[in-house]
Specification:
It is a single chain. Helix 12 packs antiparallel against helix 13. 78% of the residues lie in helices and 0% in strands. By secondary structure, the protein is mainly alpha-helical. The protein has one domain.
Length: 303
């Protein structure tokens, strides 16, 4: 992998990790277009998320510092939030550990990603419409995240193990369904990303480090991708939180459905849609995916 491919993957990761559109799904589509389908490339698509994890730590540094101080002082609110994050983390961690190999082999392909994009988009629109019809904003503040709600969010996060679903989408949607406001749902989702993505990236890196080290240019590409994804993700987090308060999830749902349909139509037209979802994504589809992801990120910026 050359440095330009690494920069592109870092940009896509940073733009899409905290938007509810699936960063892994977009990286799979981009990697397919770039011809990056080796075991090292598949590992890079996961480990590059570490840059986004660091961005969350920097963005929420003051809140994390208060949380740590509260834990040391055994503050009830800090203990409750920590337990909630731990409880939400466990389901996906256990299932992911058991199904890690099968997921990479069977689902890291354009067709499964496209299906998940479409289903997730429909779900997001439905939840957003339902919330607006109820006319109730929901409970605001991380102190409103009970253990029952945390478990529901954790179960929802399990769905994100299917590439294209989006970890942020499944957790935010589950949190909103449980009665939290969109902003609180996003805050909890982003904090939950620290243990979830951190564990996933470290596990994959340790497990496949020899593969990366033995692949020419892979470690350099990883370093470049991590730096780029960190910078881009740090800019996207604040913009997305502002956007979510104003417009909700529905616009991202429309984008997901459109992209998923484009991918499936292109795969069908090129005859590259075998039963396991593998096949090369042609240039026009991947270009659309990359450009659309960039558009999604830019529209999240305040007007």
């Amino acid at each position: 992998m050359n440095w330009l491919d690494a920069v592109l993957m870092g940009i896509i990761e940073g733009l899409t990790e905290f938007l509810p559109v699936s960063s892994t799904g977009h990286l799979i589509l981009l990697g397919d277009r770039l011809g990056q389908n080796s075991p090292a490339a598949k590992t890079l698509e996961i480990v590059i998320q570490l840059g986004a994890v660091l961005a969350v730590c920097v963005y929420y540094r003051e809140r994390l510092a208060r949380l740590i101080k509260g834990l040391i002082a055994r503050d009830p609110a800090a203990l409750r939030l920590t337990f909630a994050l731990g409880l939400a983390f466990v389901p996906a961690a256990v299932i992911g550990l058991l199904t890690h190999k099968a997921i990479k082999e069977l689902l890291f392909h354009p067709a499964p990603v496209a299906g998940a994009l479409i289903v997730g988009g429909v779900l997001m629109i439905a939840v957003d419409v339902g919330r607006k019809r109820r006319g109730k904003p929901g409970d605001d503040g991380l102190e409103q995240v009970s253990l029952k709600r945390a478990l529901a969010i954790g179960i929802g996060q399990c769905l994100s193990l299917w590439p294209g679903s989006s970890r942020s989408m499944t957790t935010i949607v589950a949190a909103e369904i449980s009665g939290l406001t969109p902003s609180t749902a996003a805050d909890f989702s982003f904090l939950l990303a620290i243990p979830t993505l951190g564990a996933a990236t470290v596990y994959d890196l340790v497990k496949n480090y020899k593969t990366l080290a033995s692949t020419p240019g892979a470690l350099n590409a990883l370093a470049i991708g991590l730096v780029v994804s960190f910078v881009v993700a740090l800019a996207v987090i604040a913009a997305f939180l502002r956007y979510l308060k104003r417009f909700g999830l529905a616009p991202f749902g429309v984008y997901r459905i459109a992209l998923g349909v484009i991918v499936l139509l292109t795969l069908g037209a090129s005859g590259n849609a075998p039963s396991n979802g593998s096949g090369a994504l042609n240039a026009s589809t991947a270009a659309s995916a990359t450009a659309a992801a960039t558009t999604a990120g830019s529209t999240a910026a305040p007007q």
